[in-house]
Amino acid sequence: MDVNAALGASDEISIAARFRGMLQWPDRLGRLSSPADPVTALVRAHRSVHPGADTALLRRAYVTADRAHSGQFRKSGEPYVTHPLAVAQILADLGMDTTTLAAALLHDTVEDTPYLLDTMRADFGDEVAYLVDGVTKFEKSHFGAIAEAETIRKMIIWAGRDVRVLVIKLADRLHNMRTLDARSPASRARIAGATREVLVPLCDRLGIQALKRELEDVVLSHLEPETYEEIDQVIQKRAQWSGFLAHIIASAEQALRADKVDASVEPRHRHHYTIWRDTVAKGMSLPPIDTPRIVVLVDGPEGECYTALGAIHGMWRPVPGRFKDFIAAPKNNLYRSLHTTVLGPDNQPIEVLIRTEEMHRDVEWGIVARFRFPTKMLPDRLSRPLGAALGAAWPAALSKTLPDALRRPLNGALGMLTGDSRTASASAAAAATDVDLEWLRRVIELEQDTDDALQFVRSLRCDLAETQIQVICRGKHLLLPAGSTPIDVAYELGTSVGDRCMGATINGEMAPLTTPLLDGNVVEVYTAPKGKATGPFREWLDHVKAPKAQLHLRRRFAEPEAPAGTIADRIAIGRAALGLALRRRSRGLANDEWLHKLVAQFPDYPDLDTLLVAIADHKLSAETAVDQLIALVDNGPEPTAPAR
User: Fold this and answer.
1) Is residue 217 a part of any domain in this protein?
2) What are 569-599's pLDDT values in tens digits?
3) Is 325 a residue of the active site?
4) Is 201 helix (H, G, I), strand (E, B) or coil?
5) Domain boundaries, position 507
């Protein structure tokens, strides 16, 4: 595409989008006058969760996306705009806020059309522009093999400020996986493999089981199609359980009532991937085993879950070694529940999950619960008097005295109830990152310790490993990848502790530093006095599993080489070289407006970032670029500011 024409087209898109948006006003039921309104289902789904949502933003975003993607088609032959619309629909069904849905509708415009991020910021505000920027990929054709790693790195950094970046990316990938049949077998395998390695674990860490189940299943269907079909045949036989499950549920409810536990009991079937994981992936023989499973939802405090457990074990004999307490020791993805397996009638094994209604909401929706149920994110001592507080003006001074962990969800809840959706969504995003995502903060700290995007992605994949263990050391509960050793524990306590590590005990007994740890181990690490350490040792690299230890040791024992600069670093270098060349000619620029027009003079570079990286990599001379820029400023048309 000719970039000069593209820049001109951007203004045209912006003006046309606004004009068409103004022409399509919804009626009282939120419908457009057009009989074939493509946004109707999206609006209906969004308002079913957020009845007071202002959907005018969604309609305007769709009109802009439709205009920007005009003439573009997916590999399936469908108009391209059907993809962002489907992504927004997935997010609406999850219960995300209006801002996120607008960003989803626009998420490919900056990457694939002439529509500029600056124009989007002027049209839709900083929040939407930030989310779209967060999911915009670096082009491999211009940034080479490092582009994919840099894209992942950028997405994680952006998510550190607003987790909705990751939620949009997951919905985007889910729709792409749903329509993967339009691609070649090689592309299907590559995309499904990348999804399994990074995006499925990210979805798990965010706790969005409602999204993760389908994502896991569709990945399995592309990577293991024959096994998937065999599991599907087993699942089709579940109808034979209906009478058995009804009897089990009735018996469980009777036992709970006898122990005065207010709870409901429901079937909780496994999906394809979990059956594969627990049978086929462990080397067990086919056909896969699909064990009956129920969930007990307790209406009361979490202590009632243990009372319910006693009632279930009083009814049926528990299977030894099959009890797990994820309430006292929760997972790192908001998952809390009790797991037990009992022998039911005819010694049929039955899996039983026990959790409160609040826990079940968090299990199902994870981080999305902050947006789907904003008022329920408050503790009882705040949620109960909230209605009374809303009767009068909420005292802002009192809100400011609360800690962030309470103030942000409170402001979010108030925003939802009073109709200030932007305040609500921003507060919910901040609260989610503050309260729920310790693992994300740890990953961002890891990113700050490395300049190499490829190394960061390798460490991220390790950190996202599905199998993890929890060990205790010096009073701290440490979450580590399975197979970690006391060396990993030492480096989790600090790099100085790791470097001086000289011995360890596991559960009170001396053990080699290379001993693999088990879930629940109590570890004590002994270190040499400062200045007298003999380590670390290169061979430790063969025994560490945690990203922090791996990164430190690889850096310590790596061969000297020039550090790989990130794309952000190269953009900064290119900008500095351009500025220096301008100063040599006694010229300067107040902003990037003329730089964006300069891009049109170099058709090989589609945007300003690509041009600046080319200058940093010496593929384009800064002097050549400045010569063109000066000629453009002195002889070219006056720049036009983005339309407002």
Assistant:
1) no
2) 778 777 877 877 777 777 777 677 788 888 8
3) no
4) helix
5) 453-557
